[in-house]
Design goal:
By secondary structure, the chain is of the alpha/beta class. 49% of the residues lie in helices and 9% in strands. The strands form five sheets. Strands 4-7-8-9-10-15-14 form a seven-stranded mixed sheet. Helix 14 packs across helix 23, helix 16 packs parallel to helix 19 and helix 17 runs parallel beside helix 20. The N and C termini lie far apart (79 Å).
Amino acid sequence: MIRFIVKRDGRKVSFNEDKISNAIRKALISSHPDDKSTSASEEQLIEKLTRQVVSEIEKENLQEPSVENTQDIIEKVLIQNEMAQEAKNFILYRQNRTNARIYNTELTKIYRDLTSKSTADMDLKRENANIDANAPMGLMLRFGSEGSKDYVRRYVLRPEHSIAHSRGDIHIHDLDFYMLTINCCQIGLKDLFKRGFSTGHGFLREPQSIQSAAALCCIAIQSNQNDMHGGQSIPLFEYDLAPYVAISYSKHLCKVVCICLRNDDAKVDDLKAYCKEIYAKFNTCLSDETQALIRNKVIEVFKREDPNKDHQADVDYVLSEAIKLTERETYQAMEALIHNLNSMQSRAGAQVPFSSINYGTGTMPEHRMIMKNVLLATDAGLGGGETPIFPVQIFKVKDGVNTKKGDPNFDLFELACKVSAKRLFPNFSFLDAPYNAMYYKEGHPETEVALMGCRTRVVSNYFDKTKEVIPGRGNLSFTTINLPRLAIEAHGSISKFYESLDELIYMVFDQLMDRFKIIAKKQVLNYPFLMGQGVWIDSERLNPEDTIEDVIKNGTMSVGFIGLAECLVALIGKHHGESKEAFDLGYQILKYMRDICDKHTVDTGLNFSLFSTPAEGLSGRFVKIDKKLYGIIPGVTDREYYTNSFHVPVYYEISAAEKIRIEGPFHELCNAGSISYIEMDGDLTKNIEAFEKVILYMKECGVGYGSINHPVDRCPVCNYVGIIGDVCPRCGRRDGEGVSIERLRKLGVGCICTG
């Protein structure tokens, strides 16, 4: 028998069934608000439901139930009796009362934990891998983040959206930035560099070398990150930086000419101007054709300075040495770019920018020099031999450009595979996939689909089809749907699942539009770099006080999803890796979601898209909530995570080829972005041919963006990178042992111990 109930402040008071009856009565009246009375039949129902609630409390052996627990049971009983509207109204009532009652207490607890708990003991501190939440600035960022999220949940979101997020029906990403900014951007460097830019503390002119261009590229990424909550991508990396390779070449050429003439004051301005003219006309200074023209100009300079001498040998040396010096400078520029992007900070010094670069299709010598050297610098690693995490590199694979012998960039594809086999990057995107190729216009690299490293894809533009380009656009925001939750609650009914999915997608549309309307009212001056420096498409035509509504309509809003595999298991007992029936159903579900997004795009004139959510953190949040609600369901809630997007579960035994074949068709449906990962064992640097075959098989199977994951070890003594078993293949060190200084010297490894 229940004698007491525990109030929220810890006090015990006598248990009173009438309080339960009153709560249920209010829920019933809320479904017909114009009539505040209850009928005789409703009173009978109230009595019956009250008995059920009391029975549930007794079943749970709760001698002294809490108020919150009792309200949870009332909610559950209403749902069990198919009183969905009444349950929803009761939940909203609870939420509003909670908001008024405990605003300060929850936030205070979070702040206390942030200052007293370690990263290992607190999920919140590990939420963003780019932020060191133990450092002062990282901790301050988390304080602001949690305060903002709490405020948005309680006072900005509609109650139904806040509840859906808190209960795990949906996840509204980057809630802390809800009222502040948009997600990510693909930065076009060409126009930005041409006109120069300001970061707020002085104006930066157009760079005059590849080294300064690479440095300004990092500054642009860092500055833009300060205006946004997501990542930054350079979609035309080799194209945008190539002109500065040509400028460096002309400088080196003129310098070597002066050295050969032994005259620092030799008149070479016309040679520099000629190189500029050649580049403007041919888009290269380094091809055989343009080198022949430049050769003639160099001869002319030599003859002008010393008309009596045969200068053929000098000219050969000058041309060869100028290219060598340019190559060396380009390598140093790419090396510095990689080091900078792994060490420079943004957002008050609390975060390394999430940066990505796309390259692979530029075929001019300057393009190729940039790509070769960024790959070689990646291969070399950071100062201690570490694998660089940033920028996430994406190599664009395209037939006729780099997929087979004879293609102009096939050697770079081979190098990309070799480097990825050692360093995990680059990843690979596939431009010939029909859903990518349809946007490409010959001779316009700005129409080549590029990606954020996380997988975000922005290309179609229903709002303005004349601007279906990549640079200057990005994702505004996205919200993820918990597919396994819908499947569990459907109890095997496919029609009920679709009914719930439909309702939830339209709720997400409403929430995304609410967020859009908040950000649309912001002014250009709120985003001094993103909008103020003309990075976002069309923002250069706006004044500082103008609102950004019209220009951000070129961006996308996305509906994400997670756990297709677990969803299918909950519905029909198998996931899409196990049966054709499950695969077909999974495809139908995502096709249904994509069709609704496409229809909503047409209905609103804005760009709505379907996103295979990057779910590294979210997958654990959803399953934790669902496990508490529904218990352990084999194949659904029996692990610590839900499977990422449409992936075949990692625990399921399947060949790499079969996994690629199964996941390939889903890429076309996810127009906001998707990725397929393949896990491979062993040292792939010893089997590059197999690596290449897997990448090209992804291309044949319709994958849009793919990556091969494999083990990478690093010896802390000699910096060897690769597979290390019991013994390091390079220095012979066993785990826990040291290596003699003499041995390290023989290997050419510097040692700080020797002074």
